[in-house]
Structures are given as C-alpha cells and as structure tokens.
Write a structure and sequence with these properties.
- It is a single chain.
- The protein is α+β, with helices and mostly antiparallel strands.
- Helix content is about 50%, strand content about 20%.
- The protein is built from 5 helices and 4 strands; from the N terminus they run E-H-H-E-E-H-E-H-H.
- The chain has helices at about 10-15, 15-25, 50-60, 75-90, 95-100; strands spanning about 5-10, 35-40, 45-50, 65-70.
C-alpha cells in the first residue's frame, strides 16, 4: 500500500492508528474505516474509499497515495477538510493533487 509519510488521521482513528494501519496492511476488512486517497481521475482531487475498495482498485490501476485514515464517514469528510485546509495554508490554493504529487 502506498501511504503518505505524514498520514492524516481522524480523531477516533488517531487513538488506534498503529493497529488500524496494521490491520489494513494485512488485508483485514475493518468496518467503518475509510481511506482518503488521491483520486485516480483528473477531475477529482481526492476520494474516500473502504480498504476493500482500495485494494480492488489498486489491482486494476496501481496503488494511489493514501493521505488519511478515518473511522466513520463523517470523520472521513472532516479529514478531507483538514487536508484541503493544510494545503491552502501552505500554498495559498486548494490544489491538493498538485501539492502531493509535487512532493
């Protein structure tokens, strides 16, 4: 799996981040866990996927960069907001894809 080195975590996911990452790496399907990734299509910047969907897409299209992990859909949306906000603060725009692909 292609993990961003400074992975973003939601508040709940942060509490058990090592265990969550380990379980995802070993192929365990965690309920209500979502990965925030760079979108595979140029139209979107990010996608929110379950680990199972990520693995399925990775087999077909290669492994996209995982930017964050969240427990629950609303937490995943919050992680997306934090990522966009961080990119905006650092660059002055919200071009998430260009920011992470340029690193």
């Amino acid at each position: 799996m292609n993990w961003y080195r400074n992975l973003y975590f939601g508040k709940t996911a942060e509490k058990k981040k090592d265990r969550i990452v380990e379980q995802i790496e070993t192929g365990e399907n965690r309920m209500f866990t979502y990965l925030i990734i760079l979108a595979q299509t140029p139209v979107n910047q990010m996608e929110i996927l379950t680990p199972a969907t990520y693995r399925s897409q990775a087999k077909k299209n290669g492994e996209p960069l995982i930017l964050g992990v969240a427990c629950g859909w609303h937490e995943a949306q919050e992680v997306v907001r934090v990522i966009v906000e961080d990119v905006y603060i650092k660059t002055g725009d919200a071009l998430v894809r260009q920011y992470f692909e340029g690193k």
